[in-house]
Design brief:
This protein is an alpha+beta fold. The protein has eleven helices and 37 strands. The strands form nine sheets. It has an eight-stranded mixed β-sheet, with helices on both faces. It has a four-stranded antiparallel β-sheet with strand order 3-4-5-6, with no helix packed on it.
Length: about 625
């Protein structure tokens, strides 16, 4: 397979230029709020809701499906609204935190903008949605850590009045709840930190009983009950296999009764179903792009219609449908567009354009994200994506290495404004799914355990050297940038291999594994022992390894220019992680550029802060790469 004339393997090929460089795209155009996004249709199919800017914050707007008249139903000015949905034909609910602290409150508002109410007005409490109770329009089941910060109790809440009733008192070890199709809590997930137990009860009047206990390394992840609401569930399971499969599992017999789908190379993802027709519809999984295994001919026909009428070079998903499942809102997107929403009438098969998320962006000016793979020094195949600047020869380019966060997550094909910004500025961007990245099986995931800054970092280094060997990267002009764990990998990169990188940008990244562990949010506490197994136990000999791989203790090795960005309210990687890194560098006589935003958390959400960060980042990279270029010429 060739990538712009460059072989996507470990051999070298001659590069070619395929087009002229595009005009420069502003940070504001790439990172400003979408014109309209997150469309949802009401259960009766008569109204559409969406998010749109109001005073630079994303707020919920509602309009009748056959009208141009729009009502803005929320008025948030401090922070935009992200997740929301229709709770009934007349009322919407949404989650909102304060300044990025992730203590989300649940709000409800009528479709005409009246009767807005904070349903969970508790300080320092986080709300989570367990079941929206589709067939009970005035009620929902939510989880609150109001009683004990480390755990969540399930409550039945009236979304009109806010009146709540606790459905079950969490004994202290339950970390998840599963309802059946009638909204009854029938399963509970229990952990002691490293072992996970599934509890089941036939009815809400019965006591929970243990079904199965597994180490966290093996998963049986319930998706939903079979449609008779009996004792068989659909689940994603890695029990006894490397690649997770979608199965049917009998909770009474404690056994797998059917394997529905398993892939040879990657894990199966989730499984969807039709609530109206009571049938499973499709299973998703991701190779280089998202794929579907269709289980239902009607659902497959629906997706084939999207592909035929909209185009093949997109990924599609159903954003919303009415209760009758005859009107759908469809999202279509790819690597060079933020995406477009369409309406689809299932009866007439008609597809209509609804809205572009960023109509001001010209797809022809954006760069292709191409799948690649390379081999690590110890023989693992590492998959990733390479985005080359458009209109430039793929040879001797300045490069930004961009490891993902998580670290137990993965990069995917699709529109990434960070990548497009860097490519538009002339940088090649390499994203790699280093060991531990999810979706590639249990063995690949487990190979990352207690390997922060070690083999995990080697995979990133090996990708960088692969680009050099390909002739794509100028070895003197390589930067590394990442957020969260990617920020840790950035700091580890410039301390482990200081000669490799000319510049580095750490965005809300871990600098000290010890202090990061000590400051985890209270609701992560049930998983502490699991974190110890995956990262390291500071109370054992692991502490030697953890100190050796905490960048804050090795600032004397840093040669690269460094820019650090942090949100003051971050509950996951607290401000102290960046503060101590900056302080250690100053003590070592090194100047570091530091951006701290007082109204942000784990990543910058407010539009003006995104503009500040990405403008500063590109200026920083350009300045330090140009300095390197001057050194080369002289």
């Amino acid at each position: 397979m060739l990538l712009l004339g460059v072989a996507c393997s470990n051999s070298k090929k001659e590069a070619v230029v395929l087009s002229e460089p595009p005009p420069q795209i502003s940070v504001e155009d790439l990172f400003k709020n979408s014109e309209k996004s997150s469309f949802r249709i009401s259960p009766d199919g008569t109204y559409i809701a969406y998010r749109a800017p109001y005073k630079n914050r994303m707020n919920i707007h509602v309009q009748k499906i056959d009208s141009d008249s729009v009502v803005r139903v929320t008025h948030s000015e401090d922070r935009g609204i992200n997740g929301y949905f229709w709770a009934s034909n007349d009322r919407l609910v949404y989650l909102k935190d304060k300044g990025g602290n992730e203590n989300f409150h649940l709000f409800a508002v009528d479709k005409n903008g009246e009767n807005e109410k904070d349903l969970t007005p508790f300080e320092g409490v986080r709300a989570q949605i367990i079941d929206d109770l589709e067939n009970k329009p005035t009620e929902m089941i939510i989880g609150l850590n109001k009683r004990i910060p480390q755990i969540f109790d399930p409550y039945l809440i009236d979304i009109e009045t806010g009146k709540m009733k606790m459905l079950y008192e969490n004994p202290g070890n339950i970390t998840g709840w599963v309802t059946d199709h009638d909204g009854s809590i029938r399963m509970a997930m229990v952990t002691n930190g490293v072992d996970q137990t599934i509890l089941y009860r036939p009815t809400e009047n019965d006591a929970f009983k243990e079904v199965i206990t597994t180490n966290f390394r093996e998963t049986l992840n319930p998706q939903f009950f079979d449609f008779d609401n009996g004792h068989v569930i659909y689940a994603v399971s890695s029990l006894g296999r490397d690649k997770a499969a979608v199965v049917k599992y009998d909770l009474m017999e404690n056994k797998e009764v059917e394997v529905i789908f398993v892939h040879d190379e990657v894990d199966a993802g989730g499984i969807s179903y039709s609530n109206k027709r009571k049938v499973p519809t499709a299973i998703t999984y991701t190779t280089t792009k998202m794929q579907r295994k269709f289980l239902d001919p009607e659902y497959e026909e629906l997706y084939n219609t999207f592909t035929d009428k909209i185009g093949k070079n997109n990924e599609y998903y159903i954003a919303s449908s009415n209760k009758e499942e005859d009107v759908f809102l469809i999202y279509a997107g790819n690597d060079k567009t933020r995406g477009t929403y369409y309406t689809y009438d299932h009866k007439t098969k008609e597809v209509k354009h609804l809205a572009d998320l960023s109509p001001w962006l010209n797809e022809e000016h954006l760069a292709d994200m191409k799948p690649i793979k390379y081999t690590s020094r110890d023989g693992l195949t590492i998959h990733g994506y390479l985005t080359l600047p458009k209109g430039k020869e793929a040879k001797n380019l300045p490069v930004v290495i961009n490891p993902h966060g998580g670290p137990w997550a993965r990069d995917n094909w699709g529109f990434n404004p960070e990548v497009q910004l860097l490519a538009n500025r002339g940088y090649a961007v390499l994203q790699m799914n280093f060991r531990g990245s999810t979706g590639y099986g249990k063995e690949f995931w487990e190979s990352s355990f207690k390997k922060w800054g070690q083999e995990m970092q080697n995979d990133i280094t090996d990708g960088t050297k692969w680009l050099i060997d390909q002739g794509i990267a100028d070895p003197e002009r390589i930067a590394i940038y990442g957020g969260s764990y990617g920020g840790y990998a950035t700091l580890a990169g410039i301390t482990n291999t200081p000669e490799l990188y000319a510049a580095a940008v750490d965005y809300v990244g871990v600098s000290n594994i010890f202090t990061w562990m000590n400051a985890i949010p209270p609701y992560w506490e049930p998983y502490r022992e699991m974190i110890y197994e995956m990262v390291g136990d500071p109370n054992t000999i692991d502490s030697v390894m953890m100190k050796a791989n905490s960048p804050v203790y090795h600032v004397d090795k840093i040669k690269a220019a460094l820019f650090i960005a942090q949100g003051a309210n971050d509950p996951r990687v607290v401000q102290a992680e960046s503060d101590q890194m900056v302080e250690a560098l100053k003590k070592n006589g090194v100047t570091v550029q530091y951006m701290l935003k007082e109204d942000e958390g784990h990543g910058f959400y407010n539009e003006e802060n995104r503009f500040d960060f990405y403008n500063a980042m590109t200026e920083f990279l350009d300045e330090n790469m140009k300095e390197k270029q001057k050194e080369i010429k002289t």
